[in-house]
Amino acid sequence: TTSMNLLFGLPLCLLPFLPHQPLLLNTLLYFIIPPPSPLITLTYYKKPVFTHQGYMQWLWDVDGKRYLDLFAGVATVSVGHCHPKVTAAAEKQLKRLWHTTSIYVYPTLHEYCEKLASYLPDPLKVIYLTNSGSEANDLAMLMARLHTGNYDIITFRGSYHGGSPQTLGLTSNTAYKYPIANGLGCTNTMCPDVFRGPWGGSHCRDSPVQTTRECSCAQGHCMANEQYIGQLKETFATSVPNRIAAFFGEPIQGVGGAVQYPKNYLKEAYRLVRERGGVCIADEVQTGFGRTGTHFWGFQGHGVIPDMVTMAKGIGNGFPMGAVVTTPEIAASFGQGVHFNTFAGNPVACAVASSVLDTISEDGSQQTSLKVGNYLLTQLAKLRDKYEIIGDVRGKGLMIGVEMVKDKVSLECLFCHHCFPCNIPSLLFLPPLQTFRIKPPMCITMEDADFFLAVFNKSVHNYMERRGG
Ligand SMILES: Cc1ncc(COP(=O)(O)O)c(C=O)c1O
C-alpha cells in the first residue's frame, strides 16, 4: 500500500465513460489520506489509479485497463512512455557504466552536453547538469546572485519553480508554500494573465486561440501589455532595491494553468531587468523540448534570449534529470568555488537524455506538438463558444489550458471535478482546480485528440444537463 500511494501522488483524473478506453486528465485533486504507514501521508486521489505499465501515450492499470495519458506525469514524458529507442539507449548504457562522477571524463556526459548546447543559441553554451528542476532553479538562483552581486529575484504570481527551501521563495502559489521562513530576497509581481487579469484583449496571445475579451488596440500596439509592464515597473519602484539579481519566468506559466502573457511582455521585461543589473532566466522545465510546437524552446516564441535557461522533466522523458544552461561570462563568476553534485550528469541519465534529443528529431515530436496542438486548441475553442462553463482555451502546441467558469459574466471558478464524474468521492483542494492542463506525451495522434474531444464534449454536455442549462 505504501508504494502504491507514493506511485500515484500524481494529478491524474479518470474519465470512466468508455470503460475499455478511459481517458486521463489532470485536475489537481488533492487528498490527505489516512496514513497507511508512517511513511506516506498524501496522494491526489482517494482511490489513486494503480498504474502498472506505460507505452507511448498509453498507461495501463493493474487490472489491465488502458488510459490515454493527457498529462504525461506533469509534461514530463516527452516522447512517450518506455519509448523503444530511449529504452534501448538506457539498457545499453546500464550494461556499460552506471556511475562515475563529473570530476572524471566520460564520453556520454561530453557527447550529451555538446548535443544539448547545439540546440541553444549563442551565448548559451555552458551546461550544468542536475537531477531535477528544483535543483536547476536553485543553482540558477545561486549563479545569478554570484554573478550580479545582487540578491533580489522577481517571479510571477501563480508560478511554480520548485519545492526546495530556496525555490519555494520563487514559487508564488499558496498551495505549495509552508509556514516557515522562506523566500528571503524573492518578490513576486503581477502575472500578465490576459484572461483573468485586469487587462487583456483579442490579439494579446501568441496562440491560435485568443480570449473572448473585446479589444480596440491598433495592430502592433497592445494596451494590456503596457498595463502589465506598468505593474512590473511598480514592483521595481516599491518592492526591490535599485539593483536586482534576476527575473525568473516561464515562457508559458505551467502549474498556474498554461497562462500566456501578452506578446512582447517578456521582451520589455527583460530590458527593464537588465537595466537594473539583473539576469533573465527562462524556466523551460515544462515548455522546453519542442512542446510549444513552433519552437524547440518556449523563449524563442517571445523573441528573447535569456541569460540562463533551466530545464528538467521532458529532458529525460521521465528519467530524473535537469540542467542549467548559461553564458561563459556567468559561468566564470561561478568558478570561484568548487561545484560538486554526485549524481548530476550520471552516465545513464546522459544516455537517456541524448536519445531523447535524437528521438524528438527522428519522430518529429515538435511537429506533432504543433499539428495536434493546433487541432486541439481550435476544436476546444469551438466548445468554449458552445458552452457557458468553458471560460478560456489557451496555449501553444501540446501545452494547453482549459479554464472552467460558472458563467462567462462572473468568471467565477468552476472546479473541474464538478463537471467530470471522476472516481473520487470527496476532495480537498490544490489550485488551480479550475483549469484542465493538457500536456500529453508528444506522440499523441489526431485520433487520440478526437477521442479526447468527444469525451470532453460529452462530459460538459452532461454537466450542463444536470445543472439545467
Ligand atoms: C516550471 C517548473 N519549474 C520547476 C519545477 C520543479 O521541478 P522538479 O519537480 O523536477 O524539482 C517544476 C515542477 O513541476 C515546474 O513545473
UniProtKB/TrEMBL annotation:
It is found in: Mitochondrion. It catalyses: N(omega),N('omega)-dimethyl-L-arginine + pyruvate = 5-(3,3'-dimethylguanidino)-2-oxopentanoate + L-alanine; N(omega)-methyl-L-arginine + pyruvate = 5-(3-methylguanidino)-2-oxopentanoate + L-alanine; N(omega),N('omega)-dimethyl-L-arginine + glyoxylate = 5-(3,3'-dimethylguanidino)-2-oxopentanoate + glycine; 2-oxopentanoate + N(omega),N(omega)-dimethyl-L-arginine = 5-(3,3-dimethylguanidino)-2-oxopentanoate + L-2-aminopentanoate. Its cofactor is pyridoxal 5'-phosphate. It holds the Pfam family Aminotran_3. It is an enzyme of class 2 (transferase). The keyword Membrane does not apply. Residues 1-20 form the signal peptide. The keyword tRNA processing does not apply. GO terms for biological process: glyoxylate catabolic process; L-alanine catabolic process, by transamination. One of its GO terms (cellular component) is mitochondrion. Its EC number is 2.6.1.18, 2.6.1.40, 2.6.1.44. It comes from the Eukaryota. GO terms for molecular function: (R)-3-amino-2-methylpropionate-pyruvate transaminase activity; alanine-glyoxylate transaminase activity; beta-alanine:pyruvate transaminase activity; pyridoxal phosphate binding. Keywords: Aminotransferase, Mitochondrion, Pyridoxal phosphate, Signal, Transferase, Transit peptide. Belongs to the class-III pyridoxal-phosphate-dependent aminotransferase family. Homotetramer. Multifunctional aminotransferase with a broad substrate specificity. Catalyzes the conversion of glyoxylate to glycine using alanine as the amino donor. Catalyzes metabolism of not L- but the D-isomer of D-beta-aminoisobutyric acid to generate 2-methyl-3-oxopropanoate and alanine. Catalyzes the transfer of the amino group from beta-alanine to pyruvate to yield L-alanine and 3-oxopropanoate. Can metabolize NG-monomethyl-L-arginine (NMMA), asymmetric NG,NG-dimethyl-L-arginine (ADMA) and symmetric NG,N'G-dimethyl-L-arginine (SDMA). This is Alanine--glyoxylate aminotransferase 2, mitochondrial.
